[in-house]
Amino acid sequence: MTSKSSLTCERLLTKAIERIGGDSPRLDAELLLGHVTGLSRTSFRAWPEREVPGEQCDEFDRLVFERAQGRPIAHLLGHQEFWSLPLRVSPATLIPRPDTECLVEVALTLPLPGSAHVLDLGTGTGAIALALASERADWQVSACDCVDDAVQLAQSNARQLGLPVKVIQSSWFTRLPPGRFDLIVSNPPYIAADDRHLDEGDVRYEPASALVAGPDGLDDLRLIVDQAPDWLNDGGWLLVEHGYDQAEAVQRLFRERGFGAIESRKDYGDRERMTLG
Ligand code: GLN
Predict the structure, then answer these.
(1) Which Gene3D superfamilies match (predicted)?
(2) φ and ψ at 237, to 5 degrees?
């Protein structure tokens, strides 16, 4: 549909909310209209009668159509906020989740040396590494990802934010330069290949390589827990995110590999979603 004439914000939003449906149609519609018009979400409420020019109405219409089809809001906006940092996102990586901010919180509470060497394994957009670098200017934060597009994206996010994170292309530990870390942190793929959750919502538009890890979802966690000790300094920490029903299995992996001080931690939804040791 091509609209030649302008429409009011209110009219556009009402129609869009109906078409988008799902869990947060108002928020989604306001974010998309804000993206197209450059106006803030609060301005739509303060001035609902404001006219939006015809070309912007068309662009909004296109984005609403895509959202109604299920395209993630972050892909349509091109960015996602994580730890209050605006990160560029692309279909090459996982979209950073609020849950993963818990991993950052836990990392920041660990007793680490002042100039700690930290590695974010499988960094995607760079979210975890950048959040940590934004909080601890004295830490030396590195990040790796096996996907070239993810490496480029994380590097560009680091540049954009002016944060000194070194991003390396490496599938887990395979191509890392020799060295040891005080903290290795990771949000690896951990969904089981036959999980029905993979057919719903944003995950349908995210790369399987960032989500799926073998029949029980633990293939990558097994590898990481097994190899991490060879890359950790004495007294160093490994901290990983996992599924809500994997804490026991992941704790066992840590124990079998000789880790001490093993603990699982809860996410904002009160579920054990992280393990450290
Ligand atoms: N938590 C994400 C989800 O369930 C998956 C993230 C991951 O596999 N690392 O959608």
Answers:
(1) DNA helicase RuvA subunit, C-terminal domain, Vaccinia Virus protein VP39
(2) -115, 145
Residue 267 inside a domain? The answer is: yes
What's the one-letter identity of residue 76? L
Q: What is the pLDDT of residues 23-55, one digit of tens each?
A: 899 999 999 999 999 999 999 999 999 999 999
CATH of the domain at 52: 1.10.8.10
- If you measure from the C-alpha of residue 100 to the centroid of ligand 1, how many angstroms do you get, rounded to a whole number? 9
Domain span at residue 221 reads 91-276
Q: Is residue 159 part of a domain?
A: yes
d(CA 249, ligand 1 centre) in Å: 17
List pLDDT tens digits, range 204-218.
999 999 999 999 999
Predicted TM-score (pTM) of the model is 0.94
Does the beta carbon of 212 sit less than 6 angstroms from any atom of ligand 1?
no
Q: Is residue 165 within 8 Å of 145, Cβ to Cβ?
A: no
Residues 48 and 114 in one domain: no
Answer yes or no: is 109 a known binding residue.
no
**What ipTM was predicted for this assembly?**
0.94
CB 234 within 8 A of CB 250: no
